[in-house]
Design a protein that fits this description.
By secondary structure, the protein is mainly alpha-helical. The chain folds into two domains: 49 residues, no CATH class; 55 residues, no CATH class. It has five helices and no strands. The longest helix is centred in the last third of the chain and has 19 residues. The protein is rod-shaped, with a radius of gyration of 26 Å. The protein starts with 11 loop residues before the first helix and ends in an 8-residue tail after the last helix.
């Protein structure tokens, strides 16, 4: 059992008493879940889980960093929530290597080339 700070100063009986007090203060649904897993194996004093490692792209940017840099380059788009949602989705996809995002990127680059070869200039920014 991982026990709270300074546990050396508490007896086993005191620890069990505190554990029971925590359990008794919980709702019935939570108590039932603990009992299903086993009260003795439940540790209310365990250390909190560490957050998932923050994912970064190959340049060291996080999703929020990529989004922020994008909107610094295109400030007129910053207020559009639908646009922001797509930019966030694309940024996460770039970091995770999502095939949907790769396909969108490849298609966009291909279509830009098709337009250029046809002499059509489109400014989608």
């Amino acid at each position: 059992m991982t026990v709270f700070e300074n546990s050396e100063s508490f007896s086993r009986e005191e620890i069990d008493k505190r554990k029971k007090a925590i359990f008794d203060s919980m709702g019935k649904r939570t108590q039932s879940a603990i009992l299903r897993k086993g009260f003795d194996s439940w540790d209310p004093f365990e250390e909190p889980k560490h957050p998932v490692e923050i994912r970064k792209d190959k340049t060291g940017n996080t999703v929020s960093g990529i989004v922020e840099k994008f909107f610094n380059d295109f400030p007129e788009k910053k207020g559009d929530s639908a646009y922001r949602k797509i930019v966030e989705e694309m940024s996460l996809g770039v970091i995770t290597g999502d095939d949907k995002i790769k396909a969108r990127y490849v298609f966009s680059m291909w279509y830009k080339k098709v337009l250029e070869e046809s002499g059509i200039e489109e400014d989608w920014t």
